[in-house]
Design goal:
Low-confidence stretches: none
Helix content: 25-40%
Radius of gyration: 24 Å
Shape: elongated
Number of domains: 1
Order of helices and strands: HEEHH
Oligomer: single chain
Strand content: 5-15%
Amino acid sequence: MMTIRAAKDSVIAKVLRDAHASGAPLRIEVGTARVIVTRKSLHVVGDEDDIWADYDPERAMAGIEAAAGSWSDVDTDALRGDLREQLGQNSADRSSG
């Protein structure tokens, strides 16, 4: 992936923000080449420190729905027993090597 850096107050940054907010397609022309950017393909990422900047609720729900039932064959009683046993172990008493 190529990265193009633009200042937050630049014209290109404003155009991209406006396109994302409106949902209208954005046509970029460079010479004779044309690129159409749609809201679905325009992925806006916020500040690096913003943990929610990349959050997409539709993708989150799709992931949850895709995972639904994936553990249906797990023996839950055995899993609980294994977890209790592991929680009861005192890691401070074990050597790292």
